[in-house]
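[Solved] Which block belongs to which protein?

Original post:
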Amino acid sequence: MSALYPLRLTPSRREKIWGSTDLAPLFGPQERKIGEIWYTFDENTVADGPLAGRTVGDLMCFSGAELMGTAFRPGETHFPILVKFLFTSDKLSVQVHPDDDYAFAQEGGPGKTEMWYVLRAEPGASVALGLTRRLGPAELRQAALSGEIERYLHWTPVAKGDVIFCVPGTLHSIGAGLALCEIQQNSDVTYRFYDFGRRGDDGRPRPLHIEQAVAVTRLETHPGPQQPAGDRLVSCPYFVVERVRCAAADIYRPDPARVHVLIALEGRGTLGGQPYQAGDVLLIPASLGPLEWRAAEPSLALRAYVPGE
């Protein structure tokens, strides 16, 4: 295999009923309603260089610890962190994600812990996190079936730079007029409580998963969006997320124990000789030495990685 280098990934764009043609601030206007852009799914590919076209899954299989770091356990087949951008012109469904215990038992895979970093928020944009009053399982089920759950949603305004950490079991929705970076466990298990009466492309109501949702929903109050004072935004057993910046020139130091996912949000330049611009996502292999970071424009990025034990 060719020597590794900072690996810029090819995005995977996905249309959604609640998506948007406005992908600012990262991309230009679209003809179709794009809801999600995925980057570190196992099937995403390298965009350029000697390894162009190779998938993330292939690289894990063939390079192992050279890519993933000394903490990598042979036999791991799925990249641990999934990075997405989300763009909304309508509300997402009222939904909830299970934890690992429930998901492995019922779905055969991991649960979903996630966080959102707000990139753009139109005036009045908000997210729903939990309910305005505590509902028992029977009340919750009935409210979802009748649609009354809509009046109990706890909507809270959000602004650019806000961070929302969403643990499994948090009932939530994302409102219209938002662009978010989502960093999560590599899982797509979602249970829908309620979908605001919408129909899918086939003209039928989209499936709901009320019994599973009731079974996993946490009733604790969510603390809401945060504006972290420092650059460590989230730290949990599944990922750490930090803000990193380069004004003009700096040295980027990979971690030999673990791969980094670098998510460019502002600026453009080169990292280890590889070009980047806002909206690019790069894997920084653990085996690399210090990299020269040259910013043609002041650059802001998020760095995500799996924490050490």
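(Second protein starts here: sequence line, then its structure tokens.)
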Amino acid sequence: MNRKRGNILALLCFISYFHYSQSQSVIIIQPGPSEGKDARVWSLSPNGNFPDHLYTKANAWTWNGEFGIERTFIEFDLSPVTKNMIISEVLLSFYYHSLPGNPEQTNAGDNRILISRTIESWSENSITWDNQPETTNLHQVEVPPSSFPQQNCTDIDVTSLIDDALNYNENYFSFLVRIKDEMTYRRFAQASSDHLTPEKRPKLEIFYDCFVDLGNDTTICSSDTINLSAGPYFSEYLWSTGNTDSITEISSNGIFWVQVVDDFGCIASDSIQIYFLPDPATILNLGPDTIICTGDSILLNPESDFQIFYGRMIDG
């Protein structure tokens, strides 16, 4: 019976060296009529539903002498944002609609707006003034008033609002646009996702760094293999082994790297060093099993270059 292998390799080294690199890219979300989700609610029609309006409008005005308020809810699909992304900045842009009317719906008055995040879901085809979703004031954004009637409203920093949505594990970003002080006569009038001109629809730009992490440099037994995974978040993979899958199998010593590209052109890479320890059963020789008398001793010599030994006596 061979009882000598024991726990001679009980101590393995796991050293934390990180070698990854990352680059910045941008996700542009600018949905159209079919995939966009925005709707206007109106206090003078508390049960009315207005899902296909061409305006993103926040308004405090009078209709036939009666005061009313209009607000807009907009949702952006954040599913393109994955766990391998570090968001640095998110910018929201609105564009003046350029739709003539009688009278034309232009920016007017002290029309500074507030943009806040919803904390309830809503349906584009059923939202009304009376059932509009609850919102939170946390990190809400105030936008200064327009300088002229046909002004665009671009590059609004909504990074904190997006961070909040992602921290709550929401795969969408829904916000309310309303006049800060809802008193006559103040209007914010921009194009909606239903506008006929694609370039004028509301746009969300998510600037981010992508990364891939293969983990720590690792030492394992030579009889084992190890699978390195770059994660499922990329569209292209290239390993130093020549493999182009997300996972590659390693069975020899070396420094291995992977380069990845995501759907938006962001490139990242990482490397890892793998060392396989020799199998002690193939290089150690303590001689044949031996029986000695009680009180005697025997010198065991592994005759190897191992610097750490672990031995134990077994009472047979």
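Accepted answer:
You had them paired correctly. Confirming on the second one: The chain has two helices and 18 strands.
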